[in-house]
Write a structure and sequence with these properties.
OB fold (Dihydrolipoamide Acetyltransferase, E2P), de novo design (two linked rop proteins)
């Protein structure tokens, strides 16, 4: 069995079998991977404590016959979110990556975008700006995965909500333009339009709803 070392961001974990856990990580060198940690649920585990979701780690990965396994890990930084809304937004990103990105496809750009996104979500800031920021990330992710607007049939857009002129201007200037580094500005109404448009597009591509967003909407008070 061969081994390799890489830096990674932990996106999710789930029960695999008994005390074993399966972690979804996004690595700098290999893209998304599902890695196994044996006996991770036991208190004696020396690895699990460094592999909580939204941890930035350096990991030693062993390539097994069926699954990659974590042989060692060093915690670089754990991103702690100051409110539950920001945590939900981080979970939305994790779910989209898990559903959209194929395992083992290396993409350093996405890795470093994640390293930029997570600390932004973890710090204090306006919720509307954070939401606009994650949808910008999502459209960059869609483009990287081959689902950019220019690659999709126009028949798809007939099924999507129509953007008003102000919303379309913000969408094109601040979300699709990856070189625009100016501060995000948007009204809640425009953000709602963009979010509805993006979610409709995602549901078409993923053929499913985002479970992580069900607890969080503008229709609810928080």
């Amino acid at each position: 069995m061969s081994t390799f070392k890489t830096t990674a961001i932990v996106l999710a974990k789930k029960i695999f079998f008994e005390d074993n856990r399966l972690y979804t990580i996004y690595t700098e060198d290999c893209g998304k991977l599902d890695v196994l940690v044996k006996a991770a649920a036991k208190s004696s585990s020396k690895l699990a404590g460094h592999l909580e979701p939204f941890s930035h780690v350096e990991a030693m990965i062993v390539k097994g016959r069926n699954k990659e396994m974590v042989a060692g890990v060093r915690l670089i930084k754990y991103f702690l979110f100051i409110d539950w809304q920001s945590l939900v937004l981080a979970n939305v990103i994790a779910e989209i990556i898990e559903k959209l990105i194929k395992p083992g496809v290396a993409d350093k750009k996405t890795f470093f975008l994640l390293l930029k996104l997570l600390p932004f979500l973890a710090k204090e800031g306006t919720l509307e700006v954070k939401r606009l920021f994650i949808w910008k990330f999502v459209w960059q992710l869609l483009n990287t995965a081959g689902y950019g607007l220019t690659e999709i049939s126009t028949a798809v857009f007939e099924k999507l909500p129509k953007l008003s002129e102000p919303a379309a201007a913000v969408f094109n200037r601040q979300l699709l333009n990856q070189y625009n580094s100016s501060p995000f500005t948007s009204s809640v109404k425009i953000l709602q339009e963009i979010e509805k448009y993006t979610l409709s597009f995602l549901e078409y591509i993923l053929e499913s709803e985002l479970k992580s967003l069900k607890t969080f909407s503008y229709d609810k008070k928080f």
